[in-house]
Amino acid sequence: MDYTFAATIGLHTLAAVIWVGGMFFAHVVLRPSVSDMNPTLRLSLWRHVLPRFFAWVFISIGVLLVTGYGVLLTGYRGGISGGYLHIDIMQIIGAIMIVLFLFLFLGPYGSFKRALARNDITAAVTAQGRIRKIVVINLILGLFTTFIGAAGTFVGY
Ligand code: HEM
Fold first, then answer.
1. Torsion over CA of 138, 139, 145 and 147, rounded to 10 degrees?
2. Comparing C-alpha atoms, which of 4, 95, 107, 124 is closest to residue 87?
3. Does ligand 1 lie within 6 Å of residue 16's CB atom?
4. 112 lines ligand 1 (CB under 6 A)
C-alpha cells in the first residue's frame, strides 16, 4: 500500500497546526498575559518572541505549499482542477494568508525592529499594533482554513 499521500497530508496538517496554533497562543494567551507589563519590558519580550515564531511561520509556509501542491500536482483528488471546493477555498485563503504574512514581515515588523533599535517606544508600540491586527486577521483565516481543510474531506460532492 502507498502511504505517500497520507504522510504528505499529515505533514501539511502539522505545518497548519504550528502556524495557526502559534498565532492562537501569541494572541489569545501571551498577549493578555503580558498586557500589564512595563512597555519597555513587554516590547523587549515580543522582540525575542517574534523572530523565533516567524522563522517557524516561514518553515510552515514552505511545508504547506510543497505538500499541498505536491499532492495536487501528482493527481490527488483529481489534481488542481479536481473540482473540490474546500481545496479551492484553501488555496485562495492560503495565498491571502501568505501575502499578509509577507507584508507583515517586510512592513510593520521591520518598523518595529527599527523603532526598538533607536529606542522609540511610541513608534514600536504603533508598529506592534499593526502586527497584531494582521495576526488577528490571519488567525481567523487560518482557523477557518484548517476547519474547512479537515471537514471538507468528509463532505460528499
Ligand atoms: C496554499 C496552498 C494550499 C494547498 C495547495 C493545500 C492543499 C491541500 C490538500 C490537497 C488537502 C487534502 C484535502 C482532502 O483530502 O480533501 C489539504 C488538506 C488540509 N489543509 Fe491545505 N492546502 C493549502 C493551504 C493550507 C493552509 C494555509 C492551511 C491552514 C492554515 C491548510 C490546512 C489544511 C488542513 C487542516 C487539511 C486537512 C488535512 C486532513 O485532515 O485531511 N492548508 N490541503
1. -170
2. 95
3. yes
4. no
Ligand 1 atom 22: the closest Cα is on which residue?
68
Q: What is the pLDDT of residues 49-96, one digit of tens each?
A: 999 999 999 999 999 999 999 999 998 888 888 889 999 999 999 999
Whether ligand 1 lies within 6 angstroms of the CB of 91 is answered as yes
Identify each DSSP E strand in 60-151 by its residue range.
Answer: none
- Ligand 1 pocket, 139 CB below 6 A? no
Q: Could you tell me the three cell numbers for 150? A: 479537515
First-to-last C-alpha distance (Å) of the chain:
26
Residues in contact with 19: Cβ distance below 8 Å, sequence separation at least 6, in sequence order: 56, 57, 60, 61, 64, 142
Distance separating alpha carbons of residues 24 and 135, to the nearest angstrom: 9
Say what the pTM is. Answer: 0.94
Sequence letter at residue 119: N
Is the dihedral angle over the CA atoms 28, 94, 54, 109 positive or is it negative? negative
CA-97 nearest atom, ligand 1: 27
List the residue whose alpha carbon is closest to atom 18 of ligand 1: 149
What one-letter code names the amino acid at 97?
M
